[in-house]
Design brief:
Elements lengths: L1 E5 L3 H13 L3 E5 L12 H6 L13 H7 L3 E3 L3 E5 L3 E5 L5 E5 L2 E4 L3 E3 L12 E2 L4 H11 L4 E5 L3 H12 L3 E6 L10 H13 L3 E4 L3 E5 L6 E4 L3 E3 L2 E4 L3 E3 L2 H5 L23 E3 L6 E2 L6 E2 L4 H17 L12 E5 L2 E7 L2 H4 L3 E9 L10 E9 L5 E8 L3 H13 L4 H5 L15 H12 L1
Parallel strand pairs: 1-2, 1-7, 2-3, 7-18, 9-16, 10-11, 10-16, 11-12
Antiparallel strand pairs: 4-5, 5-6, 8-17, 13-14, 14-15, 19-20, 21-22, 22-25, 23-24, 24-25
């Protein structure tokens, strides 16, 4: 059997490695970048100097996969055509390669969204999807004084910190009324205050309508004013790369991404899809969602690779939407639904609590918002902001939501206690007790 994987990012290489491990197959991977198995999530830390080279963000090299895993990895190949039996690619020297396949996995990922506005194609306006994108922006940013960031989601906030640590003047523009649009406004305000305190020139509820400049960008134009910049980062979202899926006639879902079943099979036999080009299920709502995040992409890839070559029926259950980031030492976590996303059935409780026993040195405040269903009392969402103890608690909430635990059950959860790590009444337990009273 010959398996061809289009895309060598996290999902693609997870699929290829799993396929090679569980089945007798020739596995070929085409990747347009010179890197595979790379971690673009680490780019902000390269800018900060925590990562010494862009190559350090590659977990496994292409040579490793070729020599240790027996996978035919072909980097710097641009796939130009896919039909129901062949993949055609062009290498960096313009030579054409044509490969037949028995099974195909599309791991083409997502595309950074670029709005169709005046000046969008000026030099100096960047997006980050590949490591090469990060390297190009870094080389420009070193020479810049004023950096504009359009979009205040996860990437926008992380890169704002990175540019500040590079000594740049940073302006952030967000069209929504608050940063982190996936979170509720009350929690976002904590983040905004921290950004302003660190020197970010923050513009909320201010859509960008144009970019001006001669050969390269010189100004960001919004509905409220004009702002001088030397370079710009667009971080306004990702859309699924479904160009080949459309040409193959694959069914797309409501989100515009490729529709697969739980086995990562597309609507055509023998063709699978995994990663940021795929629609999945929101475990909380049971509805379709688009969740372009690395943990889900890796798991989808493993499922697709195993099922494609071994005929197994491994399933991917979906996501609850867990994510975490930071701005300087403020940690920001979210899982499940926000109160806004929960709608009329949602109820929220907000608490501020300590991360350790009150007498133990280093005790810090942590803010927790818990969201539950009025009807079922199930915990359906959580947001946590604090300077320590966020990741463990947000992961606990992800498990609570997946297990469909009720507020009453969370309030009785047997969580660890010791003064250096948590108070006897953990913040999650306190929040669960508060939301029970509201319910």
């Amino acid at each position: 059997m010959k398996l061809v994987v289009v895309g060598g990012s996290a999902a693609g290489m997870a699929a290829a490695a799993k396929a090679k491990r569980v089945g007798e197959a020739e596995v070929i991977v085409f990747e347009r970048s010179k890197y595979v198995s790379y971690a673009p999530c680490g780019i902000p830390y390269y800018f900060e100097g925590l990562v010494k080279s862009i190559d350090s963000l590659v977990y496994y090299t292409a040579d490793y996969f070729r020599e240790k895993r027996g996978i035919d990895v072909r980097t710097e190949r641009s796939v130009i055509e896919i039909d129901e039996s062949h993949v055609v690619a062009i290498d960096k020297n313009g030579r054409e390669e044509r490969e037949e396949y028995d099974k195909l996995i599309l791991a083409t990922g997502g595309k950074a969204f670029r709005p169709n506005i005046e000046g969008i194609d000026l030099d100096g306006i960047h997006t980050i999807r590949l490591l090469e994108d990060g390297e190009k922006l870094y080389n420009e940013a070193k020479k810049a004084e004023k950096v504009g960031i359009v979009g205040a989601g996860y990437i926008g906030i992380e890169m704002a910190e990175a540019f500040i640590k590079m000594g740049k003047r940073v302006s952030v523009f967000e069209m929504m009324p608050h940063v982190m649009p996936s979170m509720d406004e009350e929690m976002a305000r904590i983040i905004e205050n921290e950004m302003i305190s660190k020197g970010v020139d923050l513009h909320l509820n201010e859509p960008v309508i144009a970019f001006h400049g001669k050969d390269r960008v010189e100004k960001i134009i919004t509905e409220k004013g004009e702002y001088n910049v030397d370079t710009v980062l667009l971080s306004i979202g990702v859309k699924p790369n479904v160009d080949f899926a459309k040409k193959l006639g694959l069914k797309l879902g409501k989100t515009g991404a490729i529709k697969t079943n739980e086995y990562m099979e597309s609507s055509k036999p023998g063709i699978y899809a995994a990663g940021d080009n795929v629609e999945t299920k929101n475990i909380v709502t049971g509805k379709e969602t688009y969740a372009p995040l690395a943990p889900a992409a890796n798991k989808m890839g493993r499922v697709a690779g195993e099922n494609a070559v071994a005929g197994n029926r491994r399933t991917f259950p979906g996501v609850v939407g867990t994510a975490i980031t930071k701005f300087f030492d403020l940690h920001i976590g979210k899982t499940g639904l926000s109160l806004k996303e929960a709608g009329d059935d949602g109820v929220a409780a907000d608490i501020e609590h300590g991360t350790r026993s009150h007498y133990y040195p280093g005790n810090k405040k942590i803010n927790v918002r818990l969201v539950a269903s009025k009807d079922s009392h199930h915990i359906i969402g959580g947001q946590i902001v604090g300077r320590e103890g966020v990741v463990g608690r947000i992961n606990t909430l992800a498990a609570v939501i997946t297990a469909k635990m009720k507020a009453e059950e969370l309030a009785m959860l047997d969580m660890a206690y010791a003064p250096p790590f948590a108070p006897v009444w953990d913040a999650l337990i306190v929040a669960a007790n508060v939301i029970q009273r509201k319910l």
